[in-house]
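Moderator note: this is an archived Q&A kept for reference. The question asked for a predicted structure of one protein chain; the sequence and the answer are reproduced below.
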Amino acid sequence: MIIRNAIESELEYIKKLRLNAYMEHERKIPKDHWEILKLQITSDADLEPHIDQIVAEIDGEIIGSVVLFPPKTEVYKGLLDDELDYPEIRKLAVSPKYRGRGVARALISECIQRTKDRSFREIGLHTADFMENAVQLYEGLGFERLPHYDFEPADDGIIVKAFKIPIK
C-alpha cells in the first residue's frame, strides 16, 4: 500500500470514492442529515493549497482517502463557537472492498505523522455514533472525547462528536 498526496486529476474520483464509502450510512440517519453529510463529503472546501488531500493506493488503484486540515480552519461554519487550534482529520473514506485491511489506520497514521512533522502536539476529528466502525477505530487508537466541541448540524438529535489525541 502506498500513502501519498492526491493529484488534481484524481479529485473527482476521490469524491466518488468518498460518497460510495459513506453510502452505508444513508439508511441510518434522517434524509435531511444525509443531505448535509453528502454535501460535506463532496464539497470543494478541502481544495485550498494548505489542506492535505491524502490517498491510499494499491496497484495503481486509489482505495482510500483522507483530508488533513490545518489548525484554525473554519470547516464547521457557524457550528462551533471556537476555532480549533490543532489539525483535524476529515472525510476519511475507504472503499468497501478494501475494508478491514488497515487502510484507515494507515491514512490516520499519515495524518498523525504530518501533524507531528509540523510540530503540533495534538490532532482531532469529528464523527457521529451512526459511524460505529469509525468511532470504534478512533477510540481504539486512543482518541479521547471533547464534548465541548460537539455540535448538531441538522437539528435532528444527531450529535457530531469531537475527538482529540496527543502526539508524542
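Archived answer notes: The CA atoms of residues 5 and 54 lie 4 Å apart.
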